[in-house]
Amino acid sequence: MSVENNNKSDVLETFMVEKKKVDKEHKSLRRELEDLQAKQEILLEESKIRQEESRMKYEVLEKKHTNLVNKLHERIECPVCLEIPETGPVFNCLNGHLVCSKCKSNSCPTCRAKMSEGKSLLAVTVLENIEHKCRNQQCDQLLPLAEIGAHRKVCTHRLIKCPATLCEDKVSFCSLIDHLMTDCSHSCAKEEKKIDDLTSLEGFFISFNVFEGEEYKTETFLWNGNYFFFNTITANGHWTFHVEMLGDEEECSKYRSQLVLHKHKDIEADDDYVYRFTGKPCSVEEEKDSKKETGLNVSNKMITKLSRQVMKDDDDYDFKISIAFYKKL
Questions:
Q1: Cα–Cα distances in Å, from 62 out to 66, 133, 154, 225?
Q2: How far apart are CA 80 and CA 92, in angstroms?
Q3: Residue 96 region, left (φ>0) first, then alpha (ψ -120 to 50), else beta?
Q4: Distance CA 285, CA 301 (A)
Q5: Cβ contacts of residue 230 below 8 Å, gap of 6+?
Q6: Which stretches does DSSP call E strand in 123-237?
Q7: What DSSP element (H or E) covers 60?
Q8: Nearest 5°: phi and psi at 243?
Q9: Quick count: other Cβ atoms within 10 Å of Cβ 136?
Q10: Running DSSP on this structure, what letter comes out for residue 270?
Q11: DSSP letter assigned to residue 280
Q12: In a 3-state reduction of DSSP, which class is residue 132?
């Protein structure tokens, strides 16, 4: 019994010794962990301070850069047209005032001194290395000189002519649909107060009577997320039907439109009185005179002849235009 008690006592003593060791190591590890956490917090705080210092330095530098660029803009801005030249030469008077090449005259517009043929190489260097603001109204884009030309071609605020044949208004690219819906007196969309979405249709019909000289308003359609415009023009003894698209040349090249002129009741457009045209839609940005020569072109003489032939077979002498859109494969 005594031996057994001694063994238990030894085991207990050993256990207590090991426990003290473990407790000591645990405390040591906990202190190390707390030290690491404290160091991490210090490092994070130092990092925040450095980031804030860097941000403040950047803001100071950015402000200095902005002020410098603004000063340069002011110095090289032409005092006549109030535009920053995008190409040289930039002329200067004897007192150092600048004027762009298109506004140069015999006297300086700033001090009235006689203008010489002196050219500022410094001004040209500046204009070639600063950012230029897009000149389209409501566009705030600032771009390097090398990129500004490409931007203007696709700028959503660039001015384009209304696609309606008899409308000469110029509106921004992004405002054209609003113009056709609310302002243009030669637009069916304004008259009907809506634009039909034809994405789900394979083809559709526009009916007209054969009267030369009648005004045909521009039809506007939405198909596959794009806007298309259909125009009918009667002039110089010809009927011209063409489709335009709200997009640039590259975008228009991805689509095709098919125009079929046929008898009113010839739904299949497969009898003797049919004219067809298939091709890419014109870009709305093309010149109007150029667009008049595209699409389906039929002489008034032929229309009248066909009308007479149709009237022999049918009391209804109307013709229809069948139009279909599809994406080029």
A1: 6, 18, 29, 41
A2: 13
A3: left
A4: 31
A5: 206, 218, 219, 221, 241, 242, 243, 244, 321, 323
A6: 131-133, 142-144, 159-161, 170-172, 196-197, 204-208, 219-223, 226-235
A7: helix 2-76
A8: -115, 135
A9: 17
A10: -
A11: P
A12: strand
Residue 232: name the closest of 178, 303, 307 by CA. Answer: 303
pLDDT along the chain (329 residues), means of 10: 61 72 81 86 89 90 87 91 92 92 93 90 91 90 91 92 93 95 94 89 64 75 93 83 92 91 62 81 90 84 69 60 83
Q: Which two tokens stand for residue 38?
A: 């404290």
Instruction: Write down the residue that tokens 């009248």 correspond to.
Output: 304
HSE-up of residue 38 (Cα within 13 Å, Cβ side): 6
The residues with which 278 forms a beta bridge, in sequence order, are 258
The torsion region of residue 269 among left (phi > 0), alpha (psi -120 to 50) and beta comes to left
At 113 the pLDDT is 92
Q: How far apart (Å, rounded) are the C-alpha atoms in residues 260 and 125?
A: 57
pTM of this prediction exceeds 0.85: no
Q: Is 217 exposed, middle or buried (0-12, 13-18, 19+ CB in 10 A)?
A: buried
Please tell me the predicted confidence (pLDDT) of residue 302: 77
The Cα 11–Cα 192 span in angstroms is: 101
Specify the pLDDT at position 206.
67
Nearest to 186 by CA among 226, 221, 228, 219: 219
Q: Which of 323, 322, 324, 320 is nearest to 210 (CA)?
A: 320
